[in-house]
Amino acid sequence: MKNLTRRLFVAGTSAAMTGISWNACAQAYPSGPVRIVVPYPPGAATDALARMLGQALEPQFGSNFIVENKGGAATQIGTKAIASAKPDGQTLGFVDTAFVINPGLFGKALPYDTLRDFTPISLMATAPLVLIAHTAVPAKDIKEFLALAKAQPGSLTYGSAGIGSAPHLAGEQLRQAASIDIRHIPYRGGSTVLTDLIAGHVQFGFTTVPTMLEHIRAGTVRALVVTSPERVPQLPNVPTTAEAGLPKVDTTPLFGLIGQAGLPEATVARLGAAASQLVKTGPLRARLIEAGFVPVGSTPQEFSARVQGEIAKWAEVVKAGDIKPNA
C-alpha cells in the first residue's frame, strides 16, 4: 500500500511538473522575432493581409512578426519553405486559395503534402468574387447572361491570372454548373486581365469586389452575381450564386495562418485564439471590412475542416474540367 501511494505521488508530481513545463513553454513563446512566410511577392492581397495580422499580433506576443515574401512556382516555393521550417512557431505561413487548389491541380508533383505537412491555425478572412461583364455584353443580369452563353456557344471569353487561379476555376465552376460553353484566356497577371475587360477585349471575368467596385459604380462594367453565401454590403442589389440557382458556384478565396506539422498544441492554441480575437473585434476587423474582406477568425479545428473540404471541392472541379497546370 505504501509503495502504491508513493507511485501515485510520483506520478502526480510528474504530471503536475509536465503541466507546468507545458504552460511555461506556451508562455515563453515566441523566443524571438517570428517570420510569416507569404508565397507571393510584395503587394499582393495575401501579403497585405499578412502584414495587417503581423502588426496586430506583435503587442499580443511582445515580439516582432516579420513578413518574408517567397513568391514563385504558383506559390510552391514559399509554401515548401513553410513546411520545411522547424515546427517551433518561429516560422509561420500565410496562405490563400492556392493552398487548397494546388493539391488537385498539381497532385504528386507538389513538393509537400498539404494535408500532412501543415497545421492550420486560423482562417483570417474570405474575399467574395463578383462576376463582371463588359457593358457591350447584351445581358442585364445573370439569367440573361446564361441564356446568351447557351445561345452563342463559345462566344463569351473570360480572362484570369492563369491556369488554376481562383478566377479561372470560378469560371470553370460556372461552366460545369450551368452547362455552358465559355472560353478561358489565361494571362500572366490579374491587372492585365482587368484592363482588357474594361477595354472589351474579353467579355467577362471574376474579381474581388474591392478591385472593381469603382468601375462597377461608374458603369464601366456590370456586376451580375457574387460568389459569397450572402450578398455583400458594397453591392446590395447583386444576387448571390445561390439566389441565381447556381449553388455549386461558390468560389470564395480564403486567407489564413498556418504552421508546420508537429507544431506544439499549446502554440497552436495560443496563436489561434489571438488571431481569432483580433479578427473578430477591434481595429483589425474594421480594417478588413474597409478593404472589402469578410472577417472570419476561426479555430484551428474549423480551419482544418475548411481546408479539407476546399481541397476535395477543387480537386473535383479540376478533374471534371480536365485542367492541366501547364495547359
UniProtKB/TrEMBL annotation:
InterPro entries: BUG, Bug_dom1
UniProt signal peptide: 1-26
Keywords of the record: Signal
Taxonomic superkingdom: Bacteria
CDD domains given in the database record: PBP2_Bug27
Gene3D superfamilies (alphabetical): Bordetella uptake gene, domain 1, Periplasmic binding protein-like II
PANTHER family per UniProt: BLR1237 PROTEIN, TRICARBOXYLATE-BINDING PROTEIN
Similarity comment text for this entry: Belongs to the UPF0065 (bug) family.
Identification of the protein by name: Twin-arginine translocation pathway signal protein
